[in-house]
Design a protein that fits this description.
By secondary structure, the protein is α/β, with parallel strands linked by helices. 42% of the residues lie in helices and 16% in strands.
């Protein structure tokens, strides 16, 4: 038997009216109730009646892009690529900022549930693989820039492990053996993959892994400087640093400058992402470039194909990264 709105209300422990308000995008619902309703919808694979036969048909020609922040140039460049390709295919892109919170993300997803948009691209997500897989059975969803381990849905990203491997191998080829890593404690797939790439590059070059050369905290800007201070307090200081994000690399460079360390000659620093600030810094920052525009174009093209087709493409597509060598590594 098909699932009804009453079943959803019973599962979520709320009234039918509350479920209806959530489905219609009303703000007059507590975050807790909204989250419970959305979880119940996912668990029961509920499709509102007004979706009906149009669930797999394009009606609005609008795609929602949910990003964790609007202040990161990486995301803005992906959105620009999405808009470029969407316009060519007769679609529009609307954006929402989740601030990395599950409540905001769940609330914004209501635009998909009530058919205000035809599909959603998540540039980062708090949803776990199981939830994403349930949603992807009935809705057109894609991941871009950041994959989720175990998620069986359309994904477009760089090969983070391979990109990090290439970055660290470049430092090794420049003669560095004492290479530190500024990583994170994040559960994100990309962060783990970049650390794996660092370890693999050391292993392939026969360089021992040293725990004292590893610093893990958050992606917050100050962590790069904190890491640099820790590394410089060691008896055997590293001669090179690979940071899993440009902001961490830039923070480390600023701290090095404060400590009188010449980046590019005394210390090499490599980042990841190629954000706009990398070219504005003194010294300029060597980094791994993610082809943001290409990622945005590809994910929109694939998602629109899914919206228009009965056969979903749940492939994992990787786009080629590029090493950009600048002054921070002596180039």
């Amino acid at each position: 038997m098909s699932v009804t709105i009453k079943d959803v209300a019973r599962e979520a422990g709320v009234s039918v009216a509350t479920v209806s308000r959530v489905l219609n995008g009303s703000t007059n619902v507590s975050e807790d109730s909204s989250a419970r309703v959305n979880e119940a919808i996912s668990r029961l694979n509920y499709s509102p009646n007004f979706l009906g036969r149009s669930l797999r048909r394009c009606e609005t020609n609008v795609i929602l892009c949910i990003m964790p922040t609007s202040e990161h140039s990486l995301y803005s460049r992906i959105v620009s690529g999405m808009q470029r390709r969407a316009d060519e295919l007769g679609f529009d892109i609307v954006t929402a900022v989740s601030s990395g919170t599950s409540a905001a993300e769940a609330r914004q997803m209501n635009m998909l549930f009530n058919k205000t948009v035809d599909g959603v691209v998540l540039l980062s997500t708090q949803f776990e693989a199981e939830e994403l897989n349930r949603l992807a059975k009935n809705y057109d969803i894609a991941l871009c820039c950041e994959g989720v381990t175990g998620a069986d849905l359309l994904t477009v990203a760089v090969d983070d492990e391979s990109a990090a491997f290439d970055a660290v191998t470049t430092l090794i080829n420049k003669g560095h053996k004492d290479i530190a890593l500024i990583g994170t404690n994040s559960e994100s797939t990309s962060s783990h993959a970049r650390e794996d790439g660092y370890k693999l590059a050391l292993e392939m070059a026969g360089i021992p892994y040293r725990e004292e050369y590893i610093y893990r905290d958050t992606y917050d800007y100050h962590c790069g400087g904190d890491a640099l201070e820790q590394f410089m307090s060691l008896k055997e200081r590293p001669t090179a640093i690979f940071a899993v994000s440009d902001l961490l690399a830039i923070s480390a460079i600023h701290k090095a400058s404060e400590m009188g360390i010449k980046v590019g000659s005394e210390l090499a620093v490599m980042g990841f992402d190629n954000i706009f600030m990398c070219e504005m810094m003194v010294p300029t920052v060597s980094t791994v470039e993610q082809p943001c525009g290409k990622m945005g174009e590809l994910v929109v093209e694939k998602l629109i194909n899914n919206i228009r087709s009965e056969n979903k493409d749940n492939g994992y597509y990787t786009v080629e990264h590029k090493l950009i060598l600048r002054s921070s590594t002596g180039d």
